[in-house]
Amino acid sequence: MSVRANIREVAESLYERRLRRRVVASHPPRHVGVILDGNRRWAREVGLTDPSDGHRVGARKIVDLLDWADEAGVEVVTLFLLSTDNLGRPSDELEQLLEIIATAVEGLAAPDRRWRVRVVGNPDLVPSPTAARLAAAAAGTEGRTGMQVNAAIGYGGRQEIADAVRKLLLRHAEAGTSIEELAEVLDVDHIAEHLYTSGQPDPDLVIRTSGEQRLSGFLMWQSVYSEFYFTEAFWPQFRRIDFLRALRDYSDRHRRYGG
Q1: Catalytic member of 39, 86, 122, 150
Q2: Domain locations in the chain?
Q3: Is the CATH code 3.90.1150.10 the one for domain 29-251?
């Protein structure tokens, strides 16, 4: 290692330590949503010929992120792993992507992990063998007391709201409630009770990697008062220091909740 590279490494280490102290001293977000974007572009940039290799590297990065979040005191992390739009990719590419995602979720749910895993999304949109693997992995984490990890797979914000309204209507239909009676009492809380993330706090902070500055339908309902942090780093390049910067940025903001 050159002298210059060594100096840069030491400087970054000192900077990261200062960031960690500042973040620890502040009030961390309870719920962080992360849009893991840029795997394919990173793969092209580093000269990989198979885009799936970018997804494999990105999948391995997830454990690092969860360790950082755990260390910072975050209670819930929601990972945007596969959107409903992604399901329209060519079959061979989608098959590899689903295998990478299922394997990653099974790894997060492994017996030596402490996290509770919930798969959020519409399982009917995912091939049944994959859906079964995901459900089994999540079920194996029930009863754990660690950080809640939501894996958003086959997820779309509009789809989630439509599914919530459908569940609400079916529940009231089974109870014999008429449409007129339901219209009299229906409010946002009734719909929120049927979202994929029901029972959890809404995200305080949403992070998106790769430089794109949009949510792409991620947690549309829940993120109405969220703070957003966009970073140029592709997901496989995302470092602890990038995560700490996002938390620092969040702690520096004065949240107005629409005020």
Answers
A1: 86
A2: 29-251
A3: no
